[in-house]
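Page 37, continued from 36.
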């Protein structure tokens, strides 16, 4: 360990080969309860990259919290090179209230870079950015769909970055979606400051999904191995190259009523395929929703009661949709069949 410097965060120093949970003060609630940003620091005995994994930037997206929990308990981290920061709950306010937002109704993922003297959202964004994000070379931010929607596991990356595209393929989620960043988002601010970002989307708000969790944990471990932070033993390789998408479209309800869907997550569809039907409660009127192009279902609504304009299906245009079904089945089957690790199952 000679020559390896300690890692400093807040007012805490973490020695090489040590792991500690550090509570960074955020605020105090009106009843005098303190709120903190809790970060697990795993500071390897040997030098290497610095990576953060974050979840619950939106407080109702709990799948990422479970992914972070399983990651933290992985025995593979005993051999870690470099430094890993795990932040299972960024937005504690939203998490405790099962809400996407902060108490001031602001979206934390539209509040970056924030400021130390701004709104509650701005202060939390600033703290997370300065204490965690800017100390790292790479970040993996974990998300799910909003409540009453679900997402097929997918990685989203910024266009025009070959290194990020490689990391996305290494992660091994079924789909890699190239999408531009949004102003005020964590991904936009991090990349503006030179920190690479992978955005993982999977599952439904306020729900656990075993496939989404397993895919997330396995993907993070693969990326850490690719970065030279973990040995190969115990880390599975993707069985298929993820499907690549650069264009998506939401199919929306043409009217309010009762929704019946005929396609599920990960299904490949052809242009004109009947996707869903919306009927009035008496069955007197019914309107159909059809696929506008050949594509793959990467997200959908799960609530059967809809209003006009509600998002029903998220359809991605992929190369060779005729092969998408078989490729996706192999990728999904791999995560369902195989344990997360060769020696230790973490559930």
């Amino acid at each position: 360990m000679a020559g390896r410097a300690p890692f400093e965060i807040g007012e805490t120093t973490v020695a090489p080969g040590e792991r500690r949970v550090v509570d960074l003060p955020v605020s105090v609630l009106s009843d005098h309860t303190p709120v903190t940003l809790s970060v697990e620091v795993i500071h390897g005995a040997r030098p290497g990259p610095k990576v953060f994994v974050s979840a619950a930037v939106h407080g109702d997206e709990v799948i990422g919290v479970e992914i972070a929990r399983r990651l933290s308990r992985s025995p593979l981290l005993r051999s870690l090179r470099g430094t890993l920061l795990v932040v299972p709950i960024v937005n504690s306010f939203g998490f405790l209230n099962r809400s996407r937002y902060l108490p001031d109704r602001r979206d934390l993922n539209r509040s970056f870079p924030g400021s130390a003297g701004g709104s509650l959202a701005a202060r939390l964004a600033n703290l997370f950015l300065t204490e965690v994000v800017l100390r790292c070379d790479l970040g993996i931010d974990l998300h799910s769909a909003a409540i009453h929607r679900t997402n097929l596991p997918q990685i989203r990356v910024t266009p025009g970055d070959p290194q990020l595209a490689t990391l996305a393929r290494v992660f091994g989620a079924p789909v890699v979606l190239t999408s531009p960043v949004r102003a005020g988002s964590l991904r936009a601010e991090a990349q503006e400051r030179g920190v690479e970002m992978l955005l993982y989307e999977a599952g439904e708000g306020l729900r656990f999904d075993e496939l989404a969790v397993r895919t997330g944990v396995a993907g993070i471990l693969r990326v850490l191995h690719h970065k030279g932070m973990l040995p190969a033993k115990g880390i599975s390789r993707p069985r298929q190259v993820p499907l690549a998408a650069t264009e998506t479209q939401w199919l929306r309800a043409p009217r309010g009523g009762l929704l019946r869907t005929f396609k599920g997550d990960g299904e490949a569809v052809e242009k004109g395929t009947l996707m869903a039907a919306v009927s009035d409660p008496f069955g007197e009127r019914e309107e159909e929703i059809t696929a506008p192009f050949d594509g793959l279902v990467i997200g959908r609504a799960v609530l059967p009661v809809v209003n006009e304009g509600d998002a029903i299906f998220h359809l991605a245009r992929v190369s060779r949709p005729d092969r998408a079904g078989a490729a996706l089945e192999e990728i999904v089957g791999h995560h369902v069949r195989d344990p997360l690790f060769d020696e230790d199952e973490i559930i």
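The CA atoms of residues 155 and 200 lie 5 Å apart. Flag for discussion at group meeting. The two ends are 32 Å apart (CA to CA).
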